[in-house]
Amino acid sequence: MAPCAPLSLVSLLLLASCQPASLQDLTNRNADFGTRLYRAVSSRTDDNVFLSVFTLSSALLPLLSAAAGPTQDQLLQGLRLQGLDPQSLPDLFQSLRTAVQHGSLDMSLRQGTALLPRQGLQVSSSFLDLEWTGDTVREMATDLDPQTQLLIASAAAYQVKFSPSFNESLTQDERFYVNKYRVVMVPMMFRADKFFLAYDLGLKAGVLKLPMAGGAAMLVVLPDEDVDITSVEEAVTGDQIQTWIRQLKKTKLEVQLPRFLLERSYSLRDVLQTLNITQVFQEEADLSNMWEGEAVKLTQVFHKAVVTVADGDGAGGGASVFSTLPPRLTVNRPFIFVVYLQASDAVLSIGRVIDPSSK
Predict the structure, then answer these.
(1) Are 173 and 186 in contact (CB under 8 A)?
(2) Confidence class for position 294, pLDDT limits 50, 70, 90
(3) Helix and strand totals (H; E) in the chain
(4) Is the bond preceding 164 in cis, omega lying within 30 degrees of 0?
(5) Which distant-in-sequence residues (6+ apart) come within 8 Å of 251 by Cβ?
(6) Which burial class, exposed, middle or buried, applies to 314 when counting CB atoms under 10 A from its CB (0-12, 13-18, 19+)?
(7) Is the pLDDT of residue 145 over 70?
(8) What long-range pairs does 53-56 form, CB within 8 A, spacing at least 24?
(9) pLDDT at 3
(10) Residue 123 φ then ψ, to 5°
(11) CA distance 263 to 125
C-alpha cells in the first residue's frame, strides 16, 4: 500500500496530513460508512433489509491495498477513512476482526469474504493469501457476464442469542402491523425484566437494548405508531447510534418482540456509486498494486446476510416477579435494529423488519 504521504493533488487538497489511526477511529468511521450504506439500500426498497456492514467493510479493505493514486483517494473517502494512515488500516481491521471473532462462537456469527478475479489475471504475490470462503460466497458469483473482471463477495450469518434469553413457553402468536392495510400473525416472544431503554423525543422513537451472548447487543429502534419508519432511518448515523447508547437507562419493563428470520442478498455496485465510490468501477481504475501489467476494474460487489432471532430452547429469562406491573413495550410494527459490540460500540450489522413473516 502507498505510504502515508499524499498520493495525488486530490489528497493534497482534502487531507492536510495522514493521522495515526486508532481502533476507536476505525470503529467510528466504520459506523459512519455502515449507516450511510444502510440508508442508501433501505431507500431503494420497501422490504426487509439486513446488512452485515462489518463483513462488507472487511471485504472492501483489500481494494485499498490494491488501489493507487486517485482511485485509492476516492476509496478512502467513500469508506469514510480519509485522513487516516492507510498503512495502519490492515492491522486495525485485524484487531477489530479478532475482537469480533472472540465473541462469534457465543454469538454464532459465521462470515466470509472473497476477492474473485477472472481466470487468467496475474495477481501480485502479496495478494495470494487472501481468504477464499466456501460455497456460500462462491454461489453468489455464478452465471456471470463474460466481461466480468473482478468481483468482491461477502456473506455473514447471525444466530442471535439473547442473554438472558426469551422463554419459548411464553411465546404466542400476536398481530404485527406491517402498515395500515396489512396485518400478519407472528410468534411474539415475551420477557419481563430490567432493560436498558431510551426515548428519542425529536425522532419520536423508543430505543431498547437487548444484550446478546458473546459481548454483543442489539438495539431495537421502534418509531411511534404515528411515525413513518423512513423518517427515523434518515437520521440513523454513527453519531446517532452513539447518542442512543449513551441515553439508555435501566427500567422495569415487559418486552414483546417478534421472532424473525431475514435472508437478504444484494448487488451493491450502484449503491456504492451513490456513496461516491465510482472510479474503481470505471476504465480509469488504478488497481496496479494488485495486478502486474494489466488494467483491471471492479465489476460488482455481492453481499449476502442472514439473521435469525428466536427465543431460547426452554427456560429462558421468562417473566420476573415485580411488586407492581411494569409498562409493556410491544414491538408490533416496523422497526430498525443494530447489532454492536458493547466493549467498543463497533457496529456489526444494521437492518429493519417491515414484515417478520417474510424473509
Answers:
(1) yes
(2) confident
(3) 9, 13
(4) yes
(5) 194, 195, 196, 197, 326
(6) exposed
(7) no
(8) 53/347, 53/348, 53/349, 53/350, 54/30, 54/96, 54/100, 54/346, 54/347, 54/348, 54/349, 55/111, 55/113, 55/154, 55/155, 55/156, 55/303, 55/305, 56/154, 56/268, 56/301, 56/303
(9) 45
(10) -90, 135
(11) 35
How many of the other CB atoms lie within 10 Å of CB of 282? 11
Architecture of the domain spanning 16-158+263-306: 2-Layer Sandwich (3.30)
Q: Which residues contact 328 (CB under 8 A, 6 or more apart)?
A: 253, 254, 255, 256
Residue 30 grid coordinates = 466504520
Fold for the domain defined by 168-258+311-353: Alpha-1-antitrypsin; domain 1 (2.30.39)
Non-local (6+) Cβ contacts of 204 within 8 A are 223, 224, 226, 227
Q: How far, in whole angstroms, is CA 123 from its chain's centroid?
A: 29
Nearest CA among 257, 173, 177, 242 for reference residue 210 = 257
Beta bridge partners of 305: 156, 264
Domain ranges for the chain: 16-158+263-306, 168-258+311-353
d(CA 353, CA 263): 11
Q: What is the pLDDT of residue 133?
A: 43
Q: Write out the DSSP string of 133-163.
A: --HHHHHTT-S--TT--EEEEEEEEEEE-BS
Q: What does the pLDDT average to over 286-294? A: 80
For residue 196, what are the β-bridge partners? 209, 250
pTM greater than 0.85: yes
Tell me the pLDDT tens digit for each residue of 209-263: 999 988 899 999 999 999 999 999 999 999 999 999 999 999 999 999 999 999 9
Dihedral sign of CA atoms 15, 21, 24, 27 in order? positive
Distance CA 160, CA 289 (A): 39
- Any idea of the CA torsion for 91, 239, 82, 337, to the nearest 10 degrees? 60
Q: CA dihedral in degrees (70, 71, 74, 76; nearest 10)?
A: -110
| 275 backbone φψ class: left, alpha, beta (φ>0; ψ -120 to 50) | alpha
**CA-based angle 342:136:291, to the nearest 5?**
90
